Inverse folding.
């Protein structure tokens, strides 16, 4: 082979090698991109779930198991939920967000202890390319989606129910006590705002409290103070933001020797609350379909994790937080729960059976209102 031919052969080989290497590189890059895309589309998702507290029965009884079941259903059994509960401690929840970032979850469902304090954690998650779906409470920071109930409407329904129960006692001169939720919970502020919009001018708010950490024992202490300040026979009604607080309030009223209890509102349709409604100790609760809310947030989270954004078919409205505008949202409807519609709400939805509610202690009261 002469010199010219050898040079040509070397050039051809070099070109072939270059093409081959380039092709290998392209294939590798394509594979990497494909894996990245596949990572967003795969069913093998890691869904982070951070719930705020365990004082309220709903979180462990409804929210957590339903979200887990729905994620499993939506991912053909391959998706996993990583769960942590902050037990009403905002600093603990901040650490839990860091843990979820370290664990590289695909999306984070967040029910904030403190909506403002959590904003920095939400931003850290976003910076780590982890979308955050606000659940039940609208956290601040760069939230990707949100689902909850119309919380002002909850307060309005509670206020309307209290006025209805008061009847001709609903007078500007008659005093009620308002037992709101924790000041750190944005929902509590909305409940309060809605209730005031209905109650103000119709009755006199003799004492009003923001109940630290939503704890029934704190509501009990607050109510004892209200009774001492106003007089046990001067309180015509009590606005209670939820059923847990209502339990503490009613215990204080009974402890003070109040024989005919004033109407007390509630929220969450907890079993103990429903049983108090059956006996007449508590007038009402707000029934919120936690199964519907939990199923909705699971659909949102899986949609965002798979596609990088929320499927527009899941969005029903947009809301604004203190830091963000136009957050894609779903607002779940509510129902005022009284003795008259227990069967059509908690029993129909499968929260409880008649046997769950009408234990031996409550059977006589159940029979009296026709709950059989």
């Amino acid at each position: 082979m002469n010199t010219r031919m050898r040079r040509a052969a070397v050039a051809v080989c070099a070109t072939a090698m270059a093409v081959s290497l380039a092709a290998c590189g392209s294939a590798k890059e394509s594979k990497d991109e494909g894996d990245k895309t596949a990572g967003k589309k795969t069913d093998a998702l890691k869904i982070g779930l951070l719930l705020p507290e365990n004082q309220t029965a709903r979180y462990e009884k409804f929210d957590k198991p339903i979200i887990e079941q729905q994620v499993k259903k939506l991912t053909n059994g391959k998706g996993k939920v990583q769960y942590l509960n902050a037990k009403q401690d905002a600093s603990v929840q901040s650490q839990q967000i860091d843990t979820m970032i370290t664990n590289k979850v695909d999306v984070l469902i967040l029910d904030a202890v403190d909506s403002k304090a959590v904003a920095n954690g939400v931003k850290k998650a976003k910076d780590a390319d982890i979308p955050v779906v606000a659940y039940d409470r609208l956290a601040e920071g760069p939230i990707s989606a949100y689902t909850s109930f119309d919380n002002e409407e909850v307060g309005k329904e509670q206020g309307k129910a209290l006025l209805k129960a008061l009847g001709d006692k609903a007078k500007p001169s008659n005093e009620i006590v308002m037992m709101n939720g924790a000041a750190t919970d944005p929902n509590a502020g909305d409940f309060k705002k809605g209730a005031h919009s209905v109650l103000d001018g119709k009755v006199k708010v003799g004492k009003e409290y923001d109940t630290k950490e939503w704890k029934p024992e704190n509501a009990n202490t607050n109510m004892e103070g209200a009774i001492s300040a106003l007089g046990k026979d001067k309180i015509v009604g009590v606005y209670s933001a939820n059923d847990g607080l209502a339990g503490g309030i009613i215990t204080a009223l009974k402890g003070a020797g109040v024989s005919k209890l004033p109407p007390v509102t509630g929220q969450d349709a907890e079993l103990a609350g429903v049983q108090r409604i059956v006996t007449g100790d508590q007038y009402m609760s707000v029934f919120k379909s936690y199964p519907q809310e939990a199923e909705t947030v699971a659909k949102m989270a899986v949609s965002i994790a798979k596609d990088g954004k929320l499927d527009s078919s899941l969005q029903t409205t947009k809301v604004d937080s203190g830091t963000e505008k136009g957050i894609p949202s779903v607002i779940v409807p509510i129902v005022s729960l009284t003795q008259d519609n227990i069967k059509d709400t908690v029993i129909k939805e499968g929260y409880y059976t008649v046997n769950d509610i009408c234990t031996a202690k409550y059977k006589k009261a159940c029979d009296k209102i026709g709950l059989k």
Q: What stands out?
A: The chain is about 50% helix and 15% strand.
